[in-house]
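Notes from the 1:1 (GR / supervisor)

We went over the backlog. Supervisor wanted to see one worked example end to end before approving the batch request, so GR pasted a single chain during the call. The sequence is below; no edits were made to it. Supervisor asked that the structure be written out right there so they could see what the output format looks like.
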Amino acid sequence: MSMDLDPDEVFRDDEDDPESEFYKERDATKELLVYLVDASPKMFSTTCPTDDEKTATHFQLSINCIAQSLRTQIINRSYDEVAICFFNTREKKNLQDLSGVYVFNVPEREDLDRPTARLIKEFDRIEERFDKEIGSKYGIVPGSRENSLYNALWVAQALLRKGSAKIADKRMLLFTNEDDPFGNLKGVIKVDMMRTTLQRAKDAQDLGIAIELLPLSRPDDEFNVSLFYTDLLGLEGDDLAQFKALVGERFEDLKDQLRKRMFKKRRVRRLRFVIFNGLSIELNTYALIRPTNPGTITWLDSMTNLPLTTERSFICADTAAIIQEPVKRFQSYKNENVMFSVDELSEVKRVSTGHLRLLGFKPLSCLKDYHNLKPATFAFPSDEEMIGSTCLFVALHRSMVRLKRFAVAFYGNSSHPQLVALVAQDEITTPSGQVEPPGMHLIYLPYSDDIRHVEELHTDPNSVPHATDDQIKKASALVRRIDLKDFSVCQFANPALQRHYAVLQALALDEDEMPEIKDETLPDEEGMARPGIVKALEEFKLSVYGENYEEDDAKTDGKAEPSRKRKANAMKEYSNYDWSDLADNGKLKDLTVVELKYYLAAHNIPVTGKKEALISRILTHMGK
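Structure output shown during the call:
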């Protein structure tokens, strides 16, 4: 059966389809955030030391943290939406027309919207214009019923009415150095204003809005959260103890605290785990660790710098008229046209009706470490839409742990259907002291061809060199010498990504100079030059390469050359193949990567690259 239309026009890209996983994941991890910044005179009068041995007010420190956060967010989480709200201000600017609250914004942008380059540039100059355009004023004073903190919570809650709490995280982030905002009041007025403020905060939390506090301590007086904010935040027990430990941290850590809060773990997506017809479990999946990659390319209009949108119209080939309800034509083997509507084509390309479908169970011994070729996600049950999911999940989880089995499931979407393994995990305590709840790890299994190639590498004795006992001993001694205490990958930033983001920032904000990037991955030359490390390194090299080894012999004209031992082994294996016959009959593709490298190593040809590249080098060398 031949098609009259090009398949690329019939089957749209998943990123163009609003029902695709790309859009579902984006909406499921979206965050709506309102920064609430205290602008009372105390925020301007209290100072603290900074990294450059200067002093800054608490207001300046808050502004700098938010500005840095916006720069990070516009690149890493550009579809999140933010609003900036000052309270205890002289001027007012909000939809509710409440006194003491000023919502900062720029033209052509909603109060709660995605951050823009113009917003960041204008916010960087807020300190110069603040006193003239906004002003600072105590909003809670004796003899007045005005309550600026209540008004700020009301305005922020109104801003966060946008969107559903089921598909977006909603938060207020409060910056203040006043631990007792009603301390100047007395009697019934104080009790009544505290009661109404706490009720306003509770109303917001009942709507799924989280309220978080970033307290700024005074040099001579620690922020006492117990005076008021314990009740507002609903802290008690262990949560209160952890928060008090956070309060005790130094002023310089405020930016790091904000970064930690901005990059908290969120739900990746919600899945429906189909056990069999009529019985399903609702699961939330979380990404435990992910590599940070540059964002996807977005095409912009050269005049307005706004994102371009793609529109598709179907035009009749005979009349050139736009078809309102397009149909697709396929020509059958009997020369008769078979008509398919767009809905029918969408149904044809639908691989699975459910997110996740159980196929069966296998012993844990069948699951190898090298089957896990990409980061797994953590699955946890949810009763939000399917009541009873937790009970069914617990029963399944206990059975899998008791029988030492893992579940094999089909994870289907229109672009990349594949098999996955669900491995049950009991409650564990991580080395950092955090407790991970019982759940399941969703592991993406490779295709059968990928497994075959990996298993060949694991079973071929020539693919992996074997170390002697002396070499292992020397290597262990070297590793102990250069071991980093309390090492974490989070301590070091990716210099390539940092430079990439710095270039984007300079272009987006029209900056003349690019921010300086510090490469934290460069080796510590002074530390590596210590006598103990130098001695251990020389002993290791001597045990591996011998006394007559010269480093210059390892490279020729900048190209990697196999070692003498590997080359001798390659020459031995090379003679077992009729390479000319394999090339003439197109059978090189049937060989494994290890076998192809025998030819390359025997002729001093680079052995790096994918299988197609290795075959191309062999054919080029043979003149085929």
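Supervisor's comment: The two ends are 37 Å apart (CA to CA).
Batch request approved.
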